[in-house]
Design brief:
With about 400 residues, the chain is of the alpha/beta class. It is built from 13 helices and 16 strands. Bound molecules: pyridoxal-5'-phosphate (PLP).
């Protein structure tokens, strides 16, 4: 067995809160594996906290569906937030039909078909460049005369650690730089600016970003009525400086008279779901390789992309407890590995493992690589009952192949 010693990827950016003992029991007694289980109580706690922040800041709060789209619980978000933000016509339709309130849209570019669909579904449509705005404002207004238009800007201030997740990086295509805007001019019809530069960050990062943003873009504020501060705000994380956020947003609104939007994804879904997986085999010397019925690349791609080390209930770092295993996935990808974990007791085929904080950037990113079955979706309700709301079969896989 591996005693560890190698450097491990960083853990989750926020402390993981697993479901309570009785909730874990209800989950394990109800689901087949693999399964994503959404915990209604935990989503409710996040929404209460976000509702309070909405009142205290005066900002409008939208759910970024790209990060978190808890299918069976979308109805709980209706009315709890001000609406949702969409990256595509499919997300915009989901927002319109199942969440309601305001629907905002942004994509790095729109082709004709998507633009017309977005225009029919959104209240706010944000363009990535003045060229896109000039090309599409009139067409979109033809579909929906009340539509508000925005321009995403690049504040040229980076708070990111990982280039893959740093939209504020120096060579990022996301957003228009101030120098370009000065040459092009604010496109006709644009009434708001949007920036998104954060990822799992605290209010201090927003404060620094806002200084750069105002420095570069305040000259256009008199022509605007709103600004969208994007996502990446870890609002519901234990220890997030919410008082500071309130101060920052209120002071911005008082100074500028503009309406502020925040569009978190992860913060809405933080700690609201788990993935349950089973051990299928213990392979290799001493049974070191625990092969699970899930997959990092197909079910939890952020584990490989960030990369980060997810938390497993009751498990420790390699060598910390008596029995260490490499937890590996079901696909042929050599690197389809969740990491090395140690346990108090030896693992056995059929054991179930609970991966924590798996509600966001998981269900929205899964693939059927190797034809692996997508995890079932289940909900642990406020009433303590756990029910499976969706299973996936051959048809799901076949339909996507065309
Ligand atoms: C434009 C935009 N808004 C909001 C979000 C949501 O970010 P998060 O889930 O980190 O809050 C993202 C994430 O990529 C984004 O690109």
């Amino acid at each position: 067995m591996n005693g560890g010693g190698e450097e491990l990827p960083p853990g989750p950016a926020a402390p993981v809160r697993f479901p309570r003992a009785e909730e874990r029991e209800a989950i394990l007694g109800a689901v087949r594996t693999p399964a994503f289980v959404l915990v209604e109580r935990q989503l409710g706690e996040n929404l209460t906290l976000l509702g309070r922040l909405r009142e205290q800041t005066g900002a409008r709060l939208l759910l970024a569906l790209k990060g978190y789209a808890p299918g069976p619980l979308l109805g709980s978000i209706r009315g709890a937030l001000d609406g949702a933000t969409a990256s595509s016509p499919h997300e915009a339709r989901l927002a319109r039909e199942e969440i309601g309130g305001e629907v905002h849209g942004y994509a790095p570019a729109y082709g004709r078909e998507d633009l017309l669909a977005m225009a029919g579904l959104c209240d706010h449509l944000v363009f990535n460049s003045p060229g896109q705005a000039r090309r599409w404002v009139d067409r979109a207004q033809g579909v929906s005369p009340a539509l508000a238009f925005g321009l995403r800007v690049h504040p040229e201030h980076s708070e990111g650690q990982t280039p893959l997740y740093d939209p504020g990086g120096p060579d990022s295509r996301l957003g228009t730089r101030a120098a370009e805007l000065a040459v092009e001019g604010l496109p006709e019809g644009v009434s708001g600016l949007h920036f998104h530069t954060l990822c799992e960050q605290d209010a201090d990062a927003l404060e620094r970003t806002l200084v750069a943003f105002e420095d570069r873009f305040a000259r256009w504020f008199p022509r605007l009525s709103w600004v969208n501060f994007g996502g990446g705000h870890h609002l519901t994380r234990e220890g997030y400086d919410r008082e500071r956020l309130v101060r920052i947003v209120r002071s911005f609104c008082e100074r500028t008279g503009l309406t502020v939007y925040l569009e978190p994804g992860e913060a809405v879904g933080l700690n609201t779901g788990v993935l349950v997986a089973s051990v299928l085999d213990l392979a290799g010397p001493g049974g070191r390789y625990a092969i699970l019925d899930t997959s990092a690349t197909a079910h939890l791609p952020d584990v490989l992309e960030m990369p980060y080390r997810p938390e497993v209930f009751g498990a420790g770092r390699p060598g910390e407890k008596a029995y260490t295993y490499q937890l590996g996935g079901l696909t042929c990808l050599a690197g389809d590995v969740l990491g090395d974990y140690s346990f108090d007791r030896p693992l056995a085929v059929g054991d179930r493992l609970l991966f924590g904080d798996m509600g966001h950037y998981t269900m929205v990113k899964t693939t059927t690589f190797n034809g692996v079955r997508l995890p079932d979706i289940a909900v642990l309700g406020e009433d303590g009952n756990c029910r499976t709301t969706r299973t996936f079969d051959y048809r799901t896989f076949r339909e996507r192949l065309g």
